[in-house]
Amino acid sequence: MSSGYANDLRSDTSFIIVPILTVVAIAVSVFQIAFRMSLAANWSYAVMLLGALLVGNRTWRLLRAGRNLLAAQLFLSSHVVMLALVHFQDWMPGSFMPYLYGILIVVGSMMVRPTTGFWVWGWGMVLTGTAVFLGNDLLFMEVLQAMLPPTLVNLLLATATFLSAMEWQFAVESVSELHRNVQRRRDELFSVQEELQDANVRLQNSNVALEEARLAAVNERDLRTRFMNHVSHELRTPLNAIVNFAHILNRGVRGPINDGQSDYLTRIRQSGFHLLNVLNDLLDMAQIEAGEFRLRLEPVALQPICEEGMTNVRGLLLEKQVLLVRDYPDDWPLVMADKIRLTQALINLLGNAAKYTEEGYIALRVRHNGRIVTIVVEDSGIGIPPEQHEAIFQEFRQVDESAARRRVGTGLGLPITRHLIERHGGTVRVESDPGSGSRFIITLPVAQADVETVPLVANGYTTTEAAAKPEDIGSA
Ligand code: ADP
Fold it and tell me: How far is the CA of 346 from the centre of ligand 1 (A)?
């Protein structure tokens, strides 16, 4: 335990005690000299007067210079000696003067350290006893007898002072320890605060950089969207003209055409259509990325949408031995959807089924339980390895380049489909294995107004069964 704080307090105490005791000593000496009207008879008081002045002055200077210990030692020892001189000259049996050491004992403990009271007591009693012995015509035993009461009383006072000074010192040191802890915590807090300020500045800088990056991204996105819109418009118009004029020519409107010409015109038309589809996909993707893809949601009947998808896929299967299966519910729910976009999503899945199925069947299965409608596009085609089930929903991802899969496509159909369905509040996932066909499962929320009106018995299932059945067809 450091005693620095206690020493500071002791030096503060000395600054108060030294002037007071000096004034008292001077006052007593002057009073004695004046009272007895004789300097010769009071030479010890004269010494005390001078001594108090000189010692007081010197002690004060030492205190001001920060040499507290030396100041206290000088002050105490000189006053012990001066008091002994007064005893030498002026002691009388029963005198109260030896008890005056009590003041120096207390002051000593306060100015130096708790044990100093004992030193003052020891030296004070020895010097006073000697002075009394030398200054009076007394026997050693008589001096001993006269000095015994003040010696015992002063010892008691030194002990009591020692104990309370120890207690005081302990309390002061505890407080000072506390004070040091507080200072340490305050320093820590300051450094944390500085670090926080630094972090704050860094954060502000990165915020500025982020804002600049965001603005740059927004600018770039706007530019890209404008560019896409422009390009798609510029491409779409001539493409439409090519497709339409090829069709008109093929019908012989401008004169007869032979089989070879008709074959070429059909190919021109098909390629034109394909290019239009690719263009539409690219435009959709650009809009999705730009966050500008808008849906017009309203309660729409699902059956016409499914039928449109089936009609469309039939056109793609003209040269294949593929059976089209409709597995529909008895009652159809209304769904909250953008009719055009939902049709587009369904045509994407049915188109893929047609693309990757050479024989067997393509089935469109629909179920609902009053809350959720489940649409499954199932085929008996080449299938998809499980490790590709998530990848195919990412942009420009196709399963592989093997001959069996080499079909025209951009790899944008499924990402767009998933985005469309999710924007409808639904989900789309795939179950498939190579060689075992594929099942693309869409779930969509039924339109809320419809929940009241649609019968809760769907496709022969009871209400409770119906809640499970749409999931069943998803995982069968
Ligand atoms: P693409 O324009 O290439 O068809 P999609 O995003 O629609 O792009 O499909 C991504 C890939 O997923 C396809 O290249 C194909 O390999 C695979 N795929 C999609 N649907 C089927 C399916 N019904 N059967 C087998 N593979 C499929």
Answer: 14
